[in-house]
Amino acid sequence: MKQKKRRPRRRPPAAPAAPVENEIKVQHTPGGLKGRWLLNSLSLVLLILAAVIIFVSVGVSQYYYTTIRNNLQGRVNTTAATFRNYWTSSYDQFYSSARRYVLEYEFKDKLEIQFLNQYSRVILSTSGLTADSIPATGDVEKALTTLTSSSWIGEDPLSGERVMSCTAPLFTENGDMIGGLRVITSLRIAERQIHQIILLTIFAGLLFVALVILSNQYFIKTILEPVVRINEIVREITAGRYGMRLQKVYDDEIGQLCDNINYMSDEIARAERMKNDFISSLSHELRTPLTAIGGWSETLLAGGSEDPEALSQGLEIIHKEAKRLTSMVEELMDYARIEGGRMTLEIENFDLSLELYEAVYMYENLLEKEKMKLNYDEDPEDNYFVSGDRHRMKQVFLNVIDNAAKYGAEGGKINVSILRRRNQIRVKVRDYGPGIPEAELPFVKEKFYKGSSKQRGSGIGLAVTDEIVKLHGGTLEIRSVVGQGTIVVITVPAAAAKKTETSQEEKDD
User: Fold this and answer.
1) What is the DSSP letter of 151?
2) Strand duo 373-377 + 385-388: pairing
3) Strands annotated E in 354-484
4) How far apart are CA 335 and CA 278, in angstroms?
5) E strand residue ranges, 211-356
6) Which of 18, 62, 408, 468 could form a disulfide with 433 if both were Cys (CB 3.0 to 4.6 A apart)?
7) Which of 78-82, 171-175, 298-302 is the least confident region?
8) Which H, E and C letters describe 75-127, residue by residue?
9) 334 CB burial (10 A radius; 0-12, 13-18, 19+)
């Protein structure tokens, strides 16, 4: 039945790309990593420092002002109580006692004492300058109105100096207000000390900022130098100089990054060597059959067709080498499909043992010519049905048996067996060749890897085989001992369970 050719669909014109909503914009940071580090760290430090300076300034100011206010209130209340108890029985007694107190007061250089009448006018003062005046501060009016002591802080209207004053009402023995007592002190010395403490705090903060900058400079240097070196090595690797390595100085995140880059560089170098070996090997693999095909074609065209035996031999060689070329091309195409994620499976339920037997049968006669014996073992009563692609699984068996025949020819025999264990089916292929060195075992399934073997091949057959088995939900395990041979175990899930007695373990496990 002929297949209809599909008409190629005409692709509609591509729509303009819509802007990405969550697209990350690259931000420009002056000074690079160093500038960004200093900006971020100093911003936090300066913010904390400003908060500390404000806290210290407010705290020290509150402490000084509260202490001075408490001292003034204590002094004025004590003096007012003394006057009430002894010197306020009459106004004349009050005035004469106040005058004597003002004249004999010994701390005139630190405090100013004022006596007020009941109308808030100063009648006596230790300074002698404010007598007969009415203080324009809020403490006097409040104290004489509420009959309780009151304090005030601010700029003195007469002297222009910042002061703190405290006023207490004076009472007679009968409880009548006779006047008031006011104590004033300058805040110049206290505020100078406050300013000195604030300046000292600011200086300590600036010194701390300088230490932070210096420590950050040193720390950034320990970060930037490895980063700069990493950039240089990455540029070297990008330029094609694979295998470059970084010197690890610190066992930290930067050290781990150096280890990862060194590992990446080694892996890239190894992959590059494998790629070059693959290209060289593939070129040789392609050249050999092409040379044979070309040579025999020329021979036959030059008259070799007159000899029937030569004609038959030449055609057989051309057919054999063409088949080998086809196999290599198909292998490369499978690898390209796997790498591009385009490998597809034609899923169906089938008997895995039939595909394995066909592969064994195909190689049995070929190996007899090479004087190798191929042994096959299965339990005909068991169920070996799986769900997958029968052609791909047959390709897996052919590849594994071919490798056993190619690399294990010295052993003279190959054992192939299939066994069901509950819900899994295991296929084991064993040769008795020289085996694989232990150091090469982790890499044998990698693409392009051929190890120390001198056998012909592209180096991707086993990688393709492993990927096909994984697509079937299975595993491909390789075990080998030098001098004893190699065992390849393929395990795939069974399609349906069957109630049978548990099969005995294989003798060779």
Assistant:
1) E
2) unpaired
3) 373-377, 385-388, 413-421, 424-431, 475-481
4) 13
5) 348-351
6) 408
7) 298-302
8) HHHHHHHHHHHHCCCCHHHHHHHHHHHHHHCCCCCCEEEEEEECCCCEEEECC
9) buried
Q: Which long-range contacts (CB under 8 A, 24 or more apart) does 121-130 make?
A: 122/182, 123/95, 123/98, 123/179, 124/95, 124/98, 124/99, 126/102, 129/158, 130/158
Residues in Cβ contact with 211 at an 8 Å cutoff, skipping those fewer than 6 apart = none
Residue corresponding to tokens 């066909």: 358
Q: Are 503 and 461 in contact (CB under 8 A)?
A: no
Token couple for 171: 């009472």
Could you please report the per-residue DSSP string of 284-303?
A: HHHHHHHHHHHHHHHHHHTT
The predicted pLDDT at position 165 comes to 93
DSSP character at residue 438: G
163-183 pLDDT tens trace? 999 999 998 878 888 899 999
Half-sphere exposure of 355 (CA within 13 A, CB side): 21
Residues in the chain: 509
Tell me how far apart the alpha carbons of residues 63 and 417 are, in angstroms, rounded to a whole number: 94
- Amino acid (one-letter) located at 178: I
CA dihedral 336, 337, 342, 348 (to 10 degrees): -170
Return the DSSP state at 178.
Answer: E
In whole angstroms, what is the distance from residue 16 CA to residue 213 CA? 50
SS3 call for 419:
strand
* CA–CA gap between residue 503 and residue 339 (Å, rounded): 38
Q: Are 136 and 118 in contact (CB under 8 A)?
A: no
Q: What is the pLDDT of residues 475-505, one digit of tens each?
A: 999 999 888 899 999 999 998 644 444 444 4
pLDDT of 24 > 60? The answer is no
pLDDT at 293: 79
Q: How far, in Å, CA of 114 to CA of 181, rounded?
A: 6
Q: Which residue, among 399, 406, 405, has the nearest Cα to 335 in the 3D structure?
A: 399
Q: Calculate what percentage of the chain has a pLDDT beyond 90.
A: 22
- From start to end of 422-466, where are the E strands? 424-431
Instruction: Using DSSP, state whether 183 is helix, strand or coil.
Output: strand
Other C-beta atoms lying within 10 Å of the C-beta of residue 21: 5
> Would you say 173 and 84 are in contact if contact means Cβ atoms under 8 Å apart?
yes
Residue 447 DSSP label: T
What CA–CA distance (Å, rounded) separates 331 from 343?
12
pLDDT digits (tens, 9 = 90+) for 438-451: 888 888 887 666 66
Confidence of residue 236 (pLDDT cuts 50, 70, 90): confident
User: pLDDT tens-digit profile of 354-363?
Assistant: 999 998 888 8
Strand order in the sheet with 111-117: 122-125, 111-117, 177-186, 162-171, 150-155
Query: Please, what's the b/e burial string for 448-480 (b: 16 or more CB within 10 A of its CB; e: otherwise)?
Result: bbbbebeeebbbbbbbbbbbbbeebebebebeb
pLDDT at 155 over 50: yes
